[in-house]
Design a protein that fits this description.
Layout lengths: L4 E6 L8 H14 L2 E10 L4 H4 L6 H30 L3 E9 L3 H9 L4 E6 L6 H9 L4 E5 L11 E5 L4 H14 L4 E7 L10 H17 L4 E4 L7 E2 L8 E7 L3 H7 L5
Parallel strand pairs: 1-2, 1-4, 2-3, 4-5, 6-7, 7-10, 8-10
Antiparallel strand pairs: 8-9
């Protein structure tokens, strides 16, 4: 599988997707050599009639003003996307939808189901339910970006993979292969709770670890492994080139994994 047709989901309300996030998405699509389509929803707020009749406040005027705000945000975002895509020499297209606010997630999911990959910029100031809808509703790979990306150019340096030997994890790995193959380093993290220590000896766990590394090496990602969290990786496959894959087994609490297993870029 390759990512040849990528979707960028833009948000027009309440706050527009920043230009920096749009430019980061364009850079990712250019790195993948993919066609990029940007979709933005021009929204309007629906208010029950009983709140409009006899109201002292100018609610219809407020609603109209918010709709105009979303319309202007859509226009500006798509113009910024067009400029960034043309500058990058990227094949692209734009789509503008009109819908009430509650219908935006469903429309984005419908678009995402028809693409190889969806890029969703997510703000840090408030919860972004559009991203959750796309991740769990589209059935397609989703790449979540911070709305304020780092200043350095985009590159696939270190990629962290949460691996639990399940069907869901295997499917996720398969979907992510076009990104993993381009990464300089892949870290596979398997978390083993403390309660599982007595139920599983280290020997079968190590055997599964070696199988995982060797299989990933066969898929074009040379693998190495680490016996415990924070320990230096030991190569289990020869011929390591520019990319490496480490399997880290964490026999500790999840918060320790979050601290010690934080990827570096």
């Amino acid at each position: 599988m390759v990512f040849k047709d990528v979707l960028l989901a833009l948000t027009s309300y309440p706050d527009p997707t920043p230009r920096a996030a749009t430019e980061a998405a364009v850079a990712i699509a250019a790195k993948l050599g993919a066609h990029l389509a940007a979709v933005a929803c021009e929204v309007h707020v629906e208010v029950p009639g009983r709140f409009l009749s006899g109201s002292i406040a100018n609610i219809p005027g407020i609603i109209g003003g918010e709709a105009e705000r979303s319309r202007a945000n859509c226009r500006d975002m798509l113009a910024a996307f067009e400029a960034a895509a043309v500058k990058a020499g990227l094949q692209h297209e734009t789509r503008r939808e009109k819908c009430p606010t509650f219908a935006v997630p469903d429309i984005l999911v419908e678009h995402a189901r028809l693409r190889d990959l969806t890029i969703v910029p997510v703000p840090v100031s408030y919860d972004q339910w559009y991203a959750e809808a796309i991740i769990f509703g589209s059935g397609r790979p989703t790449l979540v970006l911070p709305e304020i990306p780092p200043a350095r150019p985009f590159e696939l340096g270190t990629v962290a993979v949460a691996w639990d030997f399940s069907r869901t994890a295997a499917r996720a790995i398969s979907d992510a292969l076009p990104l993993l193959e381009r990464a300089r380093m892949v870290r596979i993290v398997t978390v083993m709770p403390r309660a599982a220590r007595s139920a599983m000896s280290s020997r079968p766990t190590w055997r599964r670890s070696k199988w995982t590394c060797s299989r990933w090496a066969a898929m074009g990602m040379p693998a190495g492994e680490s016996s415990s969290l924070g320990a230096p990786p030991k190569a289990c496959c020869r011929g390591l080139r520019s990319r490496s894959c480490f399997l880290i087994e964490a026999r500790s609490r999840p918060n320790e994994v979050a601290h010690h297993g934080r990827p570096s870029y």
